[in-house]
Amino acid sequence: MAKRTYFFTGFPGFLATRIIDRLISEHPDADFELLVHPSAMETATSRVKRLTSGGRDTGRIRLFEGDITKAGLALAPSVSDELYETVTHVFHLAAVYDLAVPEALAQSVNVTGTRNVNAWVLHCKKIRRYVYFSTAYVSGDRKGPILETELACGQGFKNHYERTKHDAEVLVQYVRDRVPTTIIRPGIVLGDSRTGETEKFDGPYFMMRFLDRFSRVPVPYIGRSRATINLVPADFITEAVCHLAHHPASADKVYHLADPSPYTAREAYRLIAEELSGKKPMFTVPRSSVYMMLSVPQIRRWVQVERETLAYFHLEAEFDCSQATADLEPAGIRCPDFGEYIPKAVEFYKENRHDPRKLIPVN
C-alpha cells in the first residue's frame, strides 16, 4: 500500500496525542504533519520528543505553526502546496470543548475553524479519509433515541459549545460527497480505563471536585432524574478511531462512540461518591437549588464546578450505536463497563487533584 501521511489539528491535545501514539505503533513508516497553534508549540515539541523516545521507529514527524481560524490555516502557501501532494488522512480534532465557552470564541474556533479545515482538505490530492471529531451532544436538548444518521432535527442547545459543534458538523456533512469522510461523535470522555490517566479534570471530573468540597459532611444526590449519562474512556475512543479511520466500510458514516449500555446518572454519581469518599449519598437536593447556588460566581469558584455540567446528569437522550457496534465488534473493540473502570478514574483523580496543570479554571 502507498505511504500514509497523517495531518492533524488538535495536537498536542490529549486525544490527538493518544491517537498519534497508536498510529505510530500500527504504522511506523507513516509521516505525521501536525498543525499546532503558536501558543502550544512548546508543549507540542515536548510531546513529540516523548512520542519518539527510546529509539522508537517512526516516520517523519513535523510541527507547523498554524491557526484554524485563519484562511489557509495560516500556513505558508508553499507548505500547503507540499502537503496537498502527500497527505492521505486528515484528523480534525481542534475545537473549544469548554461547556461555558463564550459564543464568539466558540463560533470562531468550532465553526469558522472547521470551515477552513474543510476548504484545506478539499485541496488534498491523495486524500483517503477525513476524520472529523464532533460530539454526541450535537443532539442538543432532544430526548429519547438519537440515531447516528440524524443531525438537524429542530433541536435547541444547552450552550454555545453544543450549538457550534452542531453547526460545524453540518459543514462537514456537506463535504462528504467530495471526500471520504468519517464523523466521530464521542460521549463524555473520561481517562484511560486501565490507568485512569487524563489530561484535564473537566466534564464528569467536576463532580469529583464537587464531592471533594463536601467530603466531611453527608453526601447528597442532585435531583431525582432517572436519565442515563454516557461516559466513555479515552482508550476506547483511541482504539475505535484508529480502526475506523482505515476501515473501508466507515467512509461516509457517522459513529456514536458511546456506551451502548450506559449507567443512570444517579448510579454513576453514587459509584463516584463511594470511590472518592467511601460514602453513599444519603439524601437528595433539588437540582434547581444546586443550579441556583452555582449561578453565584463566588460559590461556583469555591466548589469548582461549572453549572453547565449539571444538565448532562439529567439529559434524557439515548444514543444509538448501531453503526459503531456493527463496524467495531468484528475487530473486538467494545466500550468497557463504567462500573469496572471508574475505580481507576477516581484513583488517578485523587493522586493528581492538586496538580494545577489538570485543573480547569471556573469563572
From TrEMBL:
<dbReference type="InterPro" id="IPR026055">
    <property type="entry name" value="FAR"/>
</dbReference>
<dbReference type="InterPro" id="IPR013120">
    <property type="entry name" value="FAR_NAD-bd"/>
</dbReference>
<protein>
    <submittedName>
        <fullName>Thioester reductase-like protein</fullName>
    </submittedName>
</protein>
<feature type="domain" description="Thioester reductase (TE)">
    <location>
        <begin position="9"/>
        <end position="240"/>
    </location>
</feature>
<dbReference type="InterPro" id="IPR036291">
    <property type="entry name" value="NAD(P)-bd_dom_sf"/>
</dbReference>
<dbReference type="Pfam" id="PF07993">
    <property type="entry name" value="NAD_binding_4"/>
</dbReference>
